[in-house]
Each structure stands twice: as structure tokens, then as C-alpha cells.
Records
---
Amino acid sequence: MISGQERLACMDDAARLRDALGVRLPESLPEIYLHRVSYPLRDLFLRYLRLMLWSRLNNWLMSLVSVLPLSKSNFSNCANRGW
């Protein structure tokens, strides 16, 4: 639980969540996911930042592609020319 709410998280982040936010981990979690990390809060922040930036960039690019009058052949021509 984080701030009184149940959350789902990747098992790879279990130790980071425990060390950075004090999340209580399930006892059934394998030992390999319980190792200490050097900078847990920084690691969580950077992972979140990458995810959010990629998601927003992807949404922006999809909206841009839908507005521009380019076909798939135009994209492949640009790619072949190294643009």
C-alpha cells in the first residue's frame, strides 16, 4: 500500500519501493527481489520520468502524424534518405 491505497508494481522495483517509500512487501516475494539498492528514490523517479516522457512523446507524435498529410510511402522515402 502506498498512501493507504493498494498499487500494483513490478517485482523488480520491490526493494526500491521498500527502501524509498517504506512499502511493506509480501512475505511470499522471492529473495532475489529483496536486495538493497544504492539510490532507491532516484531510481524510482527516473523510471517514472522515462515512462511518462515516453508516453507523452508517443501521444504527441501520434497526434502529429494524424494531422500531417503524409502517407506511409512518404515516411519510407524519408527513412531511406536518412531524414
Note: The chain has three helices and no strands.
---
Amino acid sequence: DVMILDHSMFSGIADMHDRHRDMRLDVDNMSYEELLALEERIGNVSTGLNEETIMKHLKLKKYSVDESGSQNEAEPCCVCQ
């Protein structure tokens, strides 16, 4: 079974109930100078971990083929580990 949603119907409903619409900034259409002024007002916003922290917590494992042919033990993928 496949269900397809018409998102245009829901976007109109969401716009009607957006109480903060006037407060939203359209950063895609801001000039470079306006973006610099905004940065001065709100400061630096961190969007993630630095590379050193990521590498420190990343588990590295060399892949090796199981020659015995045993498929009983499922090995977690690199995302699930």
C-alpha cells in the first residue's frame, strides 16, 4: 500500500497558526552586511562538534571477511555501533 500526501494542503494550515511569522528572519535574502550585523547581535552559534571531539569518540574497526561462513552473529553497522 502506498499513501501520498498533498503537502500544499498542510502548508496553508501551518501558515495560519504561525504566531511568530513576523519575528522570522529571511536570512536567504539578507545582504552580506546584514548577515554580519546579525552575527554581532546574536553572537557565534555553534552548529556541531569540532573535528577533534568527533575523532576522539569515533570507533574505528578494520573490516575482515568471516571465512567460517557463520552468519548467526549479526555485526552492527558503523552507524548502529
Note: Helices lie at 7-16, 32-42, 51-57.
---
Amino acid sequence: MIQELTAAGISERPTPAHLFERFAIHVGKRLLKGNVQGSLLVTLPSGRRVRVGRKGNGHEAELKLNSFALARNALRRGSIGFAESYIDGDVETPDLLAVFQFFMRNEELFANAGRGFFKVRGLDRIAHSLRRNSLSGSRRNIAEHYDLGNAFFEIWLDPDLNYSSALYEHAEQPLEAAQKAKLDLVARMAGIEKEDEVLEIGCGWGAMARHMAGLGADVTAITLSQEQLAHARAEASRRGLTERNRFLLQDYRKVTGQFDRIVSIEMI
């Protein structure tokens, strides 16, 4: 039996009054005060099934919760916690894309619905302060991720170690070519020309900096990762680009000088 959540309330029946079930129903009821796009059918660990939104109201997504670990992980780590629960088998879905689309379409509604049920803002502030974007905090955060060793990233990135999204011009395009298309587009959008003085903030392993140097620009590229710095410098030397590529281990807040262009590729 599927229980339809309505703005007026839900039918009471004998079920375990588990905190997460109460929270899920609370969020669902508050969501229905807004204009829910699509619907989400949720099967709780108890077997109880509830639908957020209304069937036939656009595409329906499905989630099956195998344990309440999802609640703990999502509250503590947000979308990363959801991903970890999915990997661990705490949550299943026949169509992950449909679930993402449902949450993205109703992002603001979910944010409003969850406010005030759990008093976690203080914990969020503490967690954020531990990872604050100070000079030392930024360096530590980068090291925890990017200094795992270049060999790890070489397993699954393209040969130039581009870490941001590629630009696929057609479905059969190889990753390496799609990354090259992305670099070409960024260079065109930034208006990179020969003899330009360019600053790249967050250069990664140096692919964009090398690309711009190949166009004749003089590029100062900064990173906070020792591993990335070593790789970028070695590749620039190997390709004969050291005169136009200057890689520095430096925070963007410490940069001085004047530049014709500034480039920073966001990771999507």
C-alpha cells in the first residue's frame, strides 16, 4: 500500500514511530505546501511506502531505504553522505538520474521544509570552521584530496589530468578529445592571445596552463598541491614550455602583479 502525503495530514496507523520516518513525513508534508515538481516514491526500511508529490505530476522517481544510516550520513555530510549511503547499499533506486532530477527541481522546497526540525546549525558552523578557507585551512583541505598521489588520478583522468568536466561534441568522442575541446573553448572565451600575461588560479596538473602557453601566452599558474606542482613543472619541462609556464605553490590571496587575463576553471 502506498501512502499519499497530503498537505492536510496523513492517515495514522500503527507503525514504528522512528525518528527518520517522522522526519521524512514532516518534510513531505511541508513540501506539499509548495509546488512540487514531479514525485518521489519512498520505501522506508519498515516497508512503509510514501509518495512526495502526486502520481502523474511529471516523472516519478523511486528510492528504497534499506537502513536508517542514510539519515545520519545525509544530516552530517549532505550530498556526500547520500553518495556514501548509496555506495554502501543503504539506499537503492532503479533510476538514479530521476532521483537527482527530482531533488534538483525541488531544491528550494527541500531547504525550506527541513528548517527547524533538527537544530544542527551550530554543528554545521563548527564543522565549517574546522575546514575554513583560511590560508592554512585551504592548504590542508587541498592536501587531503589532491596529494593522494598522482598515480591514483592517472587511473581515471585523461592523459593531461584534466579534473574539470570535458566538453563532448558528440556521444562517441573520446575523453582526451573532449577535454581538448574544453580547453579550446575556455581559451576562446578568455580571449587568450600571443604574449598575453595570464594568471591561472587553481591550475591542477597544468593542462590549461600548458594549452595557453602553446598559444603563445606567458602563464603564471598557482596551486596549493605539492603533487600537482611537481607534475605540472615536470610536464612543462618535458614539452619545452618552461619559458612560458611558471608554476607556483601559492594561495591566490598572496598573488601580486598585473595580468592581461585571469583564468580559473570551476570543477563541475
Note: Residues 153 and 216 are 28 Å apart (CA to CA).
